[in-house]
Amino acid sequence: MSRHVLxxxxxxxxxxxxxxxxxxxxxxxxLTALYVVGPRHDHRGGVETxxxxxxxxxxxxxxxxxxxxxxxxxxxxxTGKPHTEILSVATEHDVDGIVLGSHGESxxxxxxxxxxxxxxxxxxxxxxxVVPEPxxxxxxxKLPGTILIPIxxxxxxxxxLAYALETFPExxxxxxxxISLPFDRSRxxxxxxxxxxxxxxxxxVADEILESATAVxxxxxxxxxxxxxxxxxxxxxxxxxxxxxxxxxxxxxxxxSLTARLLTGSVAERVARRSTRPVTLVRxxxxxx
Length: 289
Prior knowledge:
The chain has helices at residues 13-25, 51-68, 82-92, 115-123, 135-140, 155-167, 187-190, 194-219, 233-244, 258-265, 268-274, and strands spanning 4-8, 30-37, 43-44, 47-48, 74-79, 97-101, 127-131, 146-150, 172-179, 224-230, 248-253, 279-283. By secondary structure, it is α/β, with parallel strands linked by helices. It has 2 domains: 4-140, Rossmann fold (3-Layer(aba) Sandwich); 146-283, Rossmann fold (3-Layer(aba) Sandwich). Residues 104-113 and 256-264 have low confidence and may be disordered.
């Protein structure tokens, strides 16, 4: 369970949505809001702004929001490259979680993460939650709500399952395993062929993975629903979450080696880029090159 959570904010709706997510999800954790002034002054409409004063106003607003919810909020303002400063503060303050809006003021529009968020996700040494919703939407839903946990039998998925069960014991949990078959044929087309044996083998593995997850949850006294889907994991995870109206997702993400980043870029990061709900990426063990 998170003890100290860092919330980078820039005054935009997604960043304030991240703050609201923290209020709802981490009632006992220490919270620190961080505003990073870029290395160059901002000129809007030909008028030079005071970035330090802008940052102080954003942080003051965050403190007011925390006061309204009976929470204490530490604040800090830094100057530099946003993702570099975010990661530096995370290390210096020994935080065990980062929660940030999905795009903030980045010029990169949906369905892609903003440059800052994506850089933090890829380099963060701790669990990171990406919140794509404005504060009002987060506040209107009762979190933790329903939680989708994609699992594949890896150590990273096991870490994500443990995190979800421990951090959100009052939520409703569903573990989903996506079966990615090496062919694009319907069940009827492959029945009785050698491809049917391949499909059956994949389904057997899926059953074993889901049974193991159910046992882990039972040991913690938590009921766990299970489901399977077929297709490309990144696509089907997002589609399943949308179809069934889950409030948030919790996924495993590999360590920070180059190979691991390439692997997670194809699944966890793709889900986070496209999700309309908060996605928590739980940092697992590093993969070997």
